[in-house]
Structures are given as structure tokens and as C-alpha cells.
Design a protein that fits this description.
167 residues; transmembrane; elongated; mainly alpha; membrane; transmembrane helix
Amino acid sequence: MKTKKIHNIESTGFKTPSGYFDSLEKNILDKIDIENTSLPKKTGFDVPDSYLNNIEDTISEKVFGKKKIQVVSIFSTKNFIYTSSIAAAIILLISLSIFKTQPSFGNLDTESVKNYIISESISPYEIGSLLNDDELNEKEFVDLNLENESIEAYLLNNFDIEDLMIE
């Protein structure tokens, strides 16, 4: 096949006669006689005087129109009064005492507090750090009736017997 040797071809295959481009312009002008042809001398399109001087103004008038754009200021007194009254109303609603509810512990069960302390594994030292000296009065503990069995069970579960023995 001939296509296999295409990469070896060095000539383009196009040939022109010698001196063809030297006399090309003269040959074309000889065939077209400008003066004797019936071509018009003017194109028929005229630009009015000072047209290009005023074109920018004319286009901007047509695009944007002659209307003045009304500018509204954001920081007018009317807007300031309106927004400040809304802010004052919100602050007033937040600061009203009807929204301030105090939690009550009157209906809280002792058993649920015990379960919470056990489930969260809060140590007695953490509870003691929350109480101040005024809350740890002796009067609070005098009225508490503890049985000997519950005291023994507490001591056995929480302390080593060897620490409690008196020599």
C-alpha cells in the first residue's frame, strides 16, 4: 500500500509556474479596469457629521433613559426608630418576670435522687464540696433516726474492718 510510506514524502505535491507570484497583482489589475467598470464610486453609506463625537451620550440616554434614579438611604430616622422600637420590645419581653421560672424541688423523690447519684457515680467528696458550712448543721443530722443494722451495713460496705478496729 502507498499509505504506509506517507511519512517519508518530502514534497507537498502542489506546483506553480515560475514567476507566477511576481506578476499576479499586475495580471489581476489588468483584468479589472477600475475606471471603465460600472462599479459605483461611493458606497451609499454616509456617516452624519459629529456622529461619532456624540454616540456615547446617545447610547447612554437610550439604555438608561432620562429618569433619575431615586436613592433611598438605609440609615434614615424612620428606619432607625422602627428598628429600635422592635429591639426595645424584644428586650422588654425577655426581661419580664413571667418568663423567669424557678425550679421547685418539693415534688422530687428521694429515691430518684439516690438513683441519679448512683447512676452518675458521684463520689461523697464531690457532694461535700457543693455544701457549705451553713448547710452542714448538727441540727440536720440529730433528727435523723438510723438503726444499728443500717450503720453496720454501711460500714461493712464502705470501709475496711481492719481500719476500724481499735487496738
